[in-house]
Specification:
Layout lengths: L4 E5 L3 H13 L3 E5 L2 H10 L4 E5 L7 H9 L6 E6 L4 H9 L4 E4 L4 H33 L8 H13 L6 E4 L6 H10 L8 E5 L5 H9 E2 L11 E2 L1 H4 L4 E5 L6 H13 L1 E2 L8 E2 L3 E6 L3 H6 L5 H7 L2 E4 L10 H15 L6 E2 L1 H9 L5 H15 L4 E2 L6 H4 L2 H8 L6 H15 L4 H8 L3 H11 L3
Helix pairs in contact: 2-3, 13-15, 19-20
């Protein structure tokens, strides 16, 4: 079992050494600081489970130490100690998040019991956080849906490379599910119990991207009041996913390359190297070979990321998976919206099977979510699709129909299609058809389209 790390802060040497003696005798690892400034420096250097700090300290007092400790990503418990036991200071300490308040003079046994209880609380908090991370990881992971040979081959490759810990470059059009592939790799790897952290490289300015990736020290730039861990540090032991890596500025590519090569990072405004243990997965919808040739992406970084390349096929190349995906999304959104919808009308499925899906799986998911939202029965009907998809119906019918049609049948379908295009405006329809309104009215009556 790992020994608890405790930080003791007191400007009085005798009091500080007495606490050190009590705690070390109990088997704890103790670091001592004689000022608030030293305590904050220690909090930046290493993680602690518990801080015992005197309230009255020069310059940065105990409440200042408490505040800085509570700002850490995994904050330690804090016990505030003072010889000036007043209700006001006790309330202030507890309101700012202190575990407890201890008044001098105190008994050694009182300290031991209070420290033990504080560490128990910290342990429970860490267990809950870990369980929450595991639940979030399970919820965030979805197996790849599909029986298409390309998807089966992709699933097989993911299973093979997931345990290897190598860097992976995931290629594919927007909306194909590149992040889903990254999450599958993480879920099947030895890092599954740790964090999966993702960032979109095209969503930030260069300065913000550097701060998000590497973190920053206090005063590194305007507004940087405290130390902030970067996402690469947050992902320690886990997997880091760089989405749209092809949009990363060249200067940031240099910094990322060093992190991957040296396995250390330096926070913005800092000088200390921080060891980094993460697996790097990257994705892009760009042709990185072309980007390298045109000088927009570093060749050395490309080779570092491209240890293994996975290509996610567009939905148009795996149409046989559309019914499976539709059913998956139907179940997902019907459950979420508490609706009893379990069917898709045949004419709706016909349209979806023929549609090109420029937005790929993400677009299909949006279509089904919209349809479920609008549906009030047990089935997704044509009327629940977007107007553009509804107008796709005649094209689908024509493509699928194999028998020969009479001239009247062709004319009826054509007039019906024209009316759909002009949203029922008969004057416009007559102009397009090259006939007057009376002739159009007769044809509508004849074909029962009036």
């Amino acid at each position: 079992m790992t020994q608890a790390q405790i930080l003791v802060v007191d400007d009085e040497q005798i009091a500080r050494e007495n606490l050190e003696y009590i705690l070390r005798k109990e088997g704890y690892q103790v670091v001592a600081a004689e000022s608030g400034e030293q305590a904050i420096e220690a909090l930046q250097r290493q993680d602690f489970d518990l801080v015992l700090t005197d309230l009255r300290l020069p310059k940065v007092d105990g409440l200042g130490v408490l505040q800085r400790a509570r700002e850490l990503p995994s904050p330690p418990e804090v016990i505030v100690i003072t010889g000036y036991a007043t209700v006001a200071t006790a309330v202030a300490a507890m309101q700012q998040g202190a575990y407890h308040y201890l008044a001098k003079p105190y008994q050694n046994e009182e300290v031991r019991l209070l420290v033990q209880k504080a560490l128990e609380k910290r342990g429970l908090r860490l267990q809950v956080a870990e369980l929450q991370r595991q639940v979030e990881a399970q919820q965030g992971y979805q197996p790849l849906i599909g029986k298409n040979p390309k998807i089966i081959a992709l699933q097989k490759t993911i299973t093979q490379i997931a345990p290897t810990d190598c860097n992976v470059l995931i290629l594919g059009e927007t909306g194909t599910g590149k992040e889903l592939v990254a999450r599958a790799i993480h879920h099947l790897s030895g890092r599954a119990g740790k964090r999966f952290v993702a960032i979109n490289c095209g969503a930030f300015s260069e300065e913000l991207l550097a701060s998000e990736l590497f973190g920053h020290e206090a005063g590194a730039f305007t507004g940087a009041r405290g130390v902030k861990k970067g996402l690469l540090e947050v992902a320690a032991g886990g997997t880091f996913f760089l989405d749209e890596v092809g949009d990363m500025p060249l200067s940031m590519q240099v910094k990322l390359l060093r992190v991957i090569q040296e396995k250390v990072l330096i926070r913005v405004g800092g000088v200390n190297e921080i060891p980094m243990d993460v697996r790097i997965l990257a994705a892009t919808n760009k042709n990185l070979r072309r980007e390298v040739a045109q000088g927009r992406f570093r060749q050395d970084l490309y080779y570092r990321l491209n240890v293994v390349t996975l290509e996610v096929p567009p939905l148009a190349e795996r149409r046989d998976d559309i019914p499976l995906l539709c059913q998956h999304f139907l179940t997902k959104f019907a459950t979420r919206q508490h609706k009893q919808i379990d069917q898709i009308a045949p004419e709706v499925m016909d349209i979806l099977l023929q549609y090109e899906f420029p937005g790929n799986v993400r677009e299909l998911e949006n279509i089904i979510e919209r349809a479920v939202t609008l549906a009030d029965g047990a089935k997704i009907e044509l009327e629940h699709l977007t107007p553009d998809l509804q107008k796709h119906r005649l094209k689908v019918q024509r493509r699928q129909r194999r028998e020969f049609l009479t001239l009247d049948e062709y004319e009826k379908e054509y007039i019906s299609w024209i009316l759909e295009q002009v949203e029922g405006n008969k004057t416009k329809a007559a102009e397009i058809l090259g006939i007057d309104r009376v002739s159009l009215w007769r044809k509508l009556k004849r074909y029962g389209l009036g």
